[in-house]
Amino acid sequence: MRMNALHPAPGSKTAPKRLGRGIGSGLGKTSGRGVKGSRARKGYSRKNGFEGGQTPLQRRLPKFGFTSRVGRETAEVRLGELRLVEGAVVDLASLKKAGLVQKRMKRARIVLSGDISRAVSVSGVGVTRGARAAIEAAGGSVQV
């Protein structure tokens, strides 16, 4: 096989429409764009959700929901991930060092997911009720 002998499969490549090449082509004069209006002009682009001037759906529906600013800077750490922390003390700095929490986070919270086998001392980090019970059952302690 030679590089100059390579060709796409027959029928896989179709020629593009040649617009504006006379009446007989069927795509002459207005070139399939209709008559006048913004869509007939060059450079036209319709906004997402545009409904022809009718108030769009996203504006007809009511706003809802709430995003907590505290939630954006609070990381969630699973109980099973604490095995990656070196040392017996678990705080925000040790969680960041272990790569469990992003550097931009200002708070962390340990949730009950997975299990813990060694005793750790948790301080300065939020702990859920179930995670607290699991940590204390493993011989660890939680300081608020």
Descriptive overview:
- By secondary structure, this protein is α/β, with parallel strands linked by helices.
- The protein has helices at 57-60, 69-72, 92-97, 129-137; strands spanning 74-78, 89-90, 107-111, 121-123, 126-127, 141-143.
- It has 2 domains: 19-65, no CATH class; 69-143, Ribosomal Protein L15, Chain: K, domain 2.
- It is 16% helix and 14% strand.
- The chain has a 3-stranded parallel β-sheet with strand order 1-3-5.
- The longest helix has 9 residues, at 129-137.
- The chain is elongated, with a radius of gyration of 31 Å.
Short key terms for the protein model shown above:
three-stranded parallel sheet; elongated; alpha/beta
Task: Give a topology summary.
Elements: H1 57-60, H2 69-72, E1 74-78, E2 89-90, H3 92-97, E3 107-111, E4 121-123, E5 126-127, H4 129-137, E6 141-143
Parallel strand pairs: 1-3, 2-4, 3-5, 4-6
What is the CATH domain class of the largest domain? Alpha Beta
- Tell me the overall shape: elongated
The percent of residues in helical segments reads 10-25%
- Give the end-to-end Cα distance, rounded to a whole number of Å: 73 Å
Tell me the β content. Answer: 5-15%
Order of helices and strands: HHEEHEEEHE
In spatial order, strands of the major sheet run 1-3-5
Query: Which blocks of ≥5 consecutive residues have pLDDT under 50?
Result: none
The average pLDDT is 94
Total discrete domains: 2
Helix-and-strand structural type? alpha/beta
Quick summary:
It contains four helices and six strands.
